[in-house]
Amino acid sequence: MAVVPAGALMRRAAFGVAVVAAELLAGKRRVGLLVGAGNNGGDALWAGYYLRKRGVAVSAVLLTPDRVHAEGLAAFRRVGGRVVPRLRDVDLVIDGIVGLSARGPLRPDAAEHVAHLEAPVLSVDLPSGVDPDTGAVSGPAVRAHTTVTFGCLKPVHALADCGDVRLVDIGLDGELHGPDLVELDIADIGVAWPVPGPEDDKYTQGVTGIAAGSATYPGAAVLATGAALLSTSGLVRYAGPAAEDVRARWPESICTGSITDAGRVQAWVVGPGLGTGLGAEAVLRTVLEAGVPVCADADAITMLANNPDLWDARDPDTLLVLTPHDREYERLAGPVGTDRVTAARKAAERYNAVVLLKGHATVIAGPDGRVLVNRARSSWAATAGSGDVLSGVLGSLLAAGLDPVLAAGCAAKVHALAADLASDGAPIPATSLLAALPDAIRAVRPL
Ligand SMILES: NC(=O)C1=CN([C@@H]2O[C@H](COP(=O)(O)OP(=O)(O)OC[C@H]3O[C@@H](n4cnc5c(N)ncnc54)[C@H](OP(=O)(O)O)[C@@H]3O)[C@@H](O)[C@H]2O)[C@@H](O)CC1
Ligand SMILES: Nc1ncnc2c1ncn2[C@@H]1O[C@H](COP(=O)(O)OP(=O)(O)O)[C@@H](O)[C@H]1O
Ligand SMILES: [K+]
C-alpha cells in the first residue's frame, strides 16, 4: 500500500470481484451488496461500481451507515447504486461485511441480514464470520458459493469451507513471503507415491510392521494391515494377538503372535486397538526402541500421554508421527481449541515429532515448523475404523522411506479421497474406505 497510489489495490481487488460476479450472474442482472465498516466493505462498494458500469442493477445494505468506506460509497452512488434497508429480489449477493480484520462470528445485525439470503453469495476475501487465521466458525457465518481473494491464499481458504476459491492478482508479487501452510495437490502426491522399479523386490520397498489389535479389537489389526498392503507393494508384517484374524483376511502378510518374533521392518505402526495394559506398554516400548520410524496412533498415544516414562524408550533421533484425534490430542497436550494449526505446531515442537491432527481439515505439523493442511471434500471418513486405515497407509509410506511430513500429507489426502470414492454420497464402513485405496492411488498417480 505504501508503494502504489492510494486506493489502487482496492480498485484492482474490486475489479476482480466484479469480473467473477459477472461470470456468476451469467446474464442475470440484480446484485445486492452487504457492506461492513472496513475495507472489505470498500471492496464490495467498488465492485458494485464496476458492475453498475456494466449495466447491472446494484443495491447495497450499509451495516454501519456511520462508518463506511467513503470513497467507495461516493463512487457507488455516482453511477446510480442504491442504498436499501434490506436486500430483496437479487440474483447474487456480494459479502463485504468483514474481511481480514474479522474477529469472532457475525454480530447479530449482520447475522440477521445473512440469515434471510436466498441468492448465492460471493464473499470478498473470505466468508464473513469465519476466522481468517484459523477457519473456526463459532457462530453465525456466511456460507459462500464462491470466494474471491487477493494476492495470496490465506489460512482460512485451506482450513474452512469458502466455496469455490478464486485468487486475483493485485500486483503483490515480490511483497509476499513464503507460505505458512501448504496444501498438497494431487500432482504432488502422485510424484511422491512409492512405485517399484525394475531392481526392486519385496524388501527393497520397505517392510511395514503393524503392532495393533487385541483379543477385544482384532478388526483394527485387520484394517491397518490391509491398508499397509494396499498402499505400497513392500512386505507387511503383523505382530500381535490378532494374528489368526489378520492371516485369514490377508494371507500375503507375515503374522506372528508376538512382537519379539516379528523380524526386521523399516517402520512400525503401533496402537490401533492395542489396549493400554502392561502388555501393550511393553509392545510400545519395543517399537520405540527399534530405531526405525514409528507411526503411533490411538492407544499408543493414550499410553504415551498417561505414562511419560515411555518416552524414554525412544531414541530422540527416531522419527515419530503421532496421529491423534481431538480427544487423544487433549490427553497429550491439552484442549485443541479453535486454532488447530497452532495446536498441531505446539505438540510437534513439544514431542519433537510430526503431529497429524485428524479432522475434516487434517493439520500436519513437523518439528521443523512445516505445516500441511488437507481439507476433506466430504465427511464420510468420520466412521469407526477409518483411523486404523489411515495409520496403515502412513506406516507403509514411512517404511518406503518418505519424509514423515510428506508421508503424513500423502496418507491424509489419499485416505480422504478413498472415502469420497467409496462413498459416492452414501455412508460407508471403514472396510469400504480400505477397498477404495487402490482407486484413490490410481487417481493421484501421473498418467
Ligand atoms: N491488505 C490489503 O492489501 C488489501 C485489503 N483489501 C481488503 O481490505 C480488507 C481488510 O480491511 P480492514 O482491515 O479495513 O478490515 P475489515 O476486514 O473490512 O473489517 C473491519 C471492520 O469489521 C468489523 N468487524 C470485525 N469483526 C466483525 C464481525 N465478527 N461481525 C461484523 N463486523 C465485524 C470491525 O468493526 P469494529 O470492531 O471496529 O466495530 C471493523 O471495523 C481485506 O479483507 C480486503 O477485503 C483489499 O482492498 C485489497 C488490498
Ligand atoms: N468430519 C470429518 N470429515 C472428514 N474426515 C473426517 C472427519 N472426522 C474424522 N475424519 C477422518 O476420519 C478418520 C477418523 O480417525 P479416528 O478418529 O482415529 O477413527 P477410528 O479410531 O475409529 O479408527 C481420520 O482420518 C479423520 O481425519
Ligand atoms: K467478506
Main sheet: strand order: 10-9-8-11-12-13-14-15-16
CATH fold name of the largest domain = UDP-N-acetylmuramoyl-L-alanine:D-glutamate ligase
Ligands and ions found? ligand NPW, adenosine-5'-diphosphate, potassium ion
Mean pLDDT: 97
Instruction: Look at the helices and sheets and give the structural class.
Output: alpha/beta
Largest sheet: 9 strands, mixed
**Architecture of the largest domain, according to CATH?**
3-Layer(aba) Sandwich
The name of the CATH superfamily of the largest domain reads Ribokinase
Descriptive report:
There is one protein chain. The chain folds into two domains: 8-168, Rossmann fold (3-Layer(aba) Sandwich), CATH 3.40.50; 186-444, UDP-N-acetylmuramoyl-L-alanine:D-glutamate ligase. It has 16 helices and 16 strands. It has helices at 8-25, 39-53, 70-78, 108-115, 155-159, 186-192, 218-231, 243-249, 278-289, 298-306, 326-333, 340-351, 386-399, 404-423, 430-435, 437-444, and strands at 30-35, 57-62, 82-83, 92-96, 121-124, 146-150, 164-168, 208-211, 236-239, 254-256, 267-270, 294-297, 320-323, 354-357, 361-365, 371-375. The strands form two sheets. Strands 10-9-8-11-12-13-14-15-16 form a nine-stranded mixed β-sheet, sandwiched between helices. Strands 3-2-1-4-5-6-7 form a seven-stranded parallel β-sheet, with helices on one face. The two termini are 44 Å apart. The protein binds ligand NPW, adenosine-5'-diphosphate and potassium ion. Ligand NPW binds at residues 1, 9-10, 13, 36-41, 43, 97-107, 110, 124-125, 150, 170. Residues 298, 325, 358-360, 362, 376, 379, 381-382, 384-388, 390, 415 line the site of adenosine-5'-diphosphate (ADP). Its EC number is 4.2.1.136. Keywords: ATP-binding, Isomerase, Kinase, Lyase, Metal-binding, Multifunctional enzyme, NAD, NADP, Nucleotide-binding, Potassium, Transferase. This is ADP-dependent (S)-NAD(P)H-hydrate dehydratase. It is an enzyme of class 4 (lyase).
